[in-house]
Design goal:
- This protein is mostly helical and 389 residues long.
- It has a domain of 63 residues.
- 67% of the residues lie in helices and 1% in strands.
- The chain is built from 18 helices and 2 strands.
- A two-stranded parallel sheet has the order 1-2.
- Helix 5 crosses helix 7, helix 11 packs across helix 12 and helix 13 packs antiparallel against helix 14.
- The chain starts with a helix and ends with a helix.
């Protein structure tokens, strides 16, 4: 309404402060969202009265406050996107911004991720991400971008950024980059919900179904990924009886829908196929690592990145022996974007341990523990180092 994302943040914060001050005495209103919206609008009017150059916006907001009834939550609107968060994700992923700026801004504003978490997801510095977010807000304001839901070709043009946002939210939930929890189920559930809604909105987009399939299958392992003391449990050591078979079936169904569309396999469909290969194995020993290594090779050609190469090295190390895997990992040691990435020394340590090079492996696990910001993962890496002598 105010066409300024920074001002909108301040107004929302003002409304929340008013709620914290008033609700303990007056009680929580029947419709908290409408109450907050009304307070935010009144604060907007107060501010805009002091800014003569924005009189036309004052009139628009004031008329809307006086004439429109308070919105009820979860009421469908004409654009058929019935989820408020998903509407905002599409809005923030505007083409006037670069892809990296769109994703960073949306993750910060709507995904619940901190600047540090976004930086680690992009393998870059916090200052770089912070600058992207500040510039993105300024660009949207200077360009006078209307905050509205795109339609038709405009919506399709933003789809890849929206998928990336949902994917990164899920990843942060699946393996928290920092803090005392290994898994943040709230973020996983939010991402799954958004993905499922998006699959209904875009039934002809294979990558949408691929992302949903990937998230469903990955989420099926949640209970098995955490030990009794909250410690992370590696995939080969997980109790597969704890895997959620319903989520696996849903993931397989989404993957079949993606493949049935007959399009070339995109990165999300390929990652879902890798997850499906793991899900099909009744035991860790039954895993078809040769197939997984082949899928990673295709993924590396479709969406090349150092992280994909690292994952491919893991698969090759399982399929063709740790020496082959180590050869691939060693080509990534000098990769600038992986210098602070704790999984590089972690993977290298695992391969070295399997080769019997325990002193080197221990040093790699200790280095990985220094680099990670997640407490359960740090303890697990130090335990692995200690177990080597």
């Amino acid at each position: 309404m105010v066409h300024d994302i920074g001002l909108a943040e301040e107004l929302a914060q003002d409304a929340l402060v008013a709620a914290l001050e008033q609700w303990p005495e007056s009680g929580v209103p029947d419709n908290p969202g409408a109450w907050l919206m009304a307070v935010g609008k009144r604060r907007a009017i107060d501010r805009l009265r002091r800014r003569q150059r924005l009189e036309h916006r004052l009139e628009e907001i004031g008329r809307d406050l006086e004439t429109r009834p308070a919105p009820e939550p979860d009421v469908p609107d004409d654009d058929h996107i019935e989820d408020d968060v998903l509407r905002l994700v599409f809005t923030a992923c505007h083409p006037v911004l670069s892809t990296q700026a769109r994703v960073a801004l949306t993750l910060r504003m709507l995904g619940g991720l901190t600047t540090g978490e976004i930086a680690r997801a992009f393998l870059t510095s916090e200052s770089t991400v912070a600058q992207r977010i500040v510039r993105a807000k300024r660009t949207l304001t200077d360009a006078g971008v209307p905050f509205e839901v795109p339609e038709g070709p405009d919506r399709a043009a933003r789809l890849s950024s929206v998928l990336e946002v949902i994917y990164l939210i899920f990843n942060e939930g699946y393996t928290a980059t920092a803090g005392s929890d290994w898994v943040r189920t709230d973020l996983c559930q939010d991402a799954l919900r958004l993905g499922r809604i998006l699959a209904e909105l875009a039934p002809g987009e294979p990558e949408v179904h691929g992302l949903v399939a990937l998230m469903e299958i990955q989420a099926s392992r949640t209970r098995a990924r955490i030990g009794p003391s909250g410690e992370p449990v590696p995939l080969p050591e997980q109790d597969r009886g704890l895997w959620d078979r319903l989520l696996i079936h849903r993931g397989f169904a989404a993957l079949l829908r993606a493949k049935a569309l007959g399009e070339p396999l995109g990165p999300y469909v390929l990652q879902a196929a890798i997850a499906a290969s793991h899900a099909q194995a009744r035991t860790a020993e039954d895993t078809d690592w040769t197939q997984i290594a082949s899928l990673y090779e295709v993924l590396a050609s479709v969406a090349p990145s150092p992280v994909v190469d690292l994952n491919r090295a893991v698969a090759v190390g399982r399929a063709h022996g740790p020496a082959r895997g180590l050869e691939l990992v060693d080509t990534l040691v000098d990769e600038p974007s992986l210098r602070g990435y704790h999984l590089l020394p972690s993977v290298r340590g695992d391969l070295l341990a399997r080769l019997g090079r325990t002193a080197e492996a221990r040093a790699e696990f200790e280095r990985a523990a220094e680099l990670t910001h997640n407490e359960p993962e740090r303890r697990a890496l130090l335990d692995r180092a200690a177990a080597l002598g």
